[in-house]
Amino acid sequence: MAGRIARAERAGTTRESILAAAERLFAEHGVFAVSNRQVSEAAGQGNNAAVGYHFGTKADLVRAIVRRHTERTERLRLRMLAEIGDSSDVRDWLACLVRPSAEHLAALGDLTWYGRFGAQVMTDPVLREIMVEESLTSPALHRVLDGLNRCLPDLPAEVRAERGDMARQLMVHMYAERERALAEGTPTPRSNWHDAATGLIDALVGLWLAPVTPCP
Amino acid sequence: MAGRIARAERAGTTRESILAAAERLFAEHGVFAVSNRQVSEAAGQGNNAAVGYHFGTKADLVRAIVRRHTERTERLRLRMLAEIGDSSDVRDWLACLVRPSAEHLAALGDLTWYGRFGAQVMTDPVLREIMVEESLTSPALHRVLDGLNRCLPDLPAEVRAERGDMARQLMVHMYAERERALAEGTPTPRSNWHDAATGLIDALVGLWLAPVTPCP
């Protein structure tokens, strides 16, 4: 019994170190440029097949990394939702959309990798489905999008759809770019994640409420 | 002499078919997932080392693809600049920023690959430098950014910088996503590239002119 618990704990630690090593290597060198063997080595696993044993394919590994982070942003988003109730201010809903990822990255410490990892996954023709599937299962995100829709002005369906896409693209790529600048020591427009999120919320309020040019 | 010209023409055709094959494979399968050997084969080259012979490394190949397209968008942008003169309307300058890529993609035909290719390059930690270097050498783009800056309201430098980043991200990723949807036969918010650009210009006008929340 004690032996079984010790084995389970050891497996948990191994999984954690593989996830951390994979996220870092993927962010810095690219998801496809890094082999499972390199991840196993960086995670300090003597056995080069450790990734396969614990996670399966590279897609499975990517999904496990995504899931580890979405669990935490989900909790942050639920807390913010409880605070704004049924607000009718577009800005409140955009804050619930944008702040949780920024807060999560801020809480992870000075150097993070998930922003760059996420941007690669969202841009890859195959891996992006994983991100989409995982975020579709987020009840908090659905509530945010419902709330936002309720207090937006009347917009043509196509404009609503494209502005939703734009908001998502900006969240993914602006945070990834900020993370990259921090890692490389190059300048970033804002000095912390909170202010970066504020800048993004300001811009998204303008984007969502912008007048629409009719297309014939 | 005639032999030398024939050889040069043959090399030009070979280069063209390699560039076209590489762009398509990179867009569909990912820049890092595709080998130079696969590109050579898809380009109908009996010699598997054709890519290396004609272009050098994968980074050189990526740069050649980028350059082939930026030459054409540069011409489209210069023509638009001549039309708007020294306009003081933010919208005119944003149109010069956003329309040339959309017009270029529209002119390439029903199925294109450069949008998805470009988004991957811009997100990759190493390859993005190629795109940045190539666009830095565009006089037309510099004139657009100068013109835009002249007619924007007074904004804090950090806000100006981050909104510039946002505009760039949206151009790259919204067009890539539209191209992907067309290739996969999934719905897109707009029925053509011109209207997609109009939607993006509307959104960017709102984004650039949005009120700024002061950060302490």
From TrEMBL, chains A, B:
<dbReference type="InterPro" id="IPR041586">
    <property type="entry name" value="PsrA_TetR_C"/>
</dbReference>
<feature type="domain" description="PsrA tetracyclin repressor-like C-terminal">
    <location>
        <begin position="96"/>
        <end position="206"/>
    </location>
</feature>
<keyword id="KW-0805">Transcription regulation</keyword>
<keyword id="KW-0238">DNA-binding</keyword>
<feature type="domain" description="HTH tetR-type">
    <location>
        <begin position="18"/>
        <end position="65"/>
    </location>
</feature>
<dbReference type="Pfam" id="PF17939">
    <property type="entry name" value="TetR_C_30"/>
</dbReference>
<keyword id="KW-0804">Transcription</keyword>
<dbReference type="InterPro" id="IPR009057">
    <property type="entry name" value="Homeodomain-like_sf"/>
</dbReference>
<dbReference type="InterPro" id="IPR001647">
    <property type="entry name" value="HTH_TetR"/>
</dbReference>
<dbReference type="InterPro" id="IPR050109">
    <property type="entry name" value="HTH-type_TetR-like_transc_reg"/>
</dbReference>
<protein>
    <submittedName>
        <fullName>TetR/AcrR family transcriptional regulator</fullName>
    </submittedName>
</protein>
<dbReference type="Pfam" id="PF00440">
    <property type="entry name" value="TetR_N"/>
</dbReference>
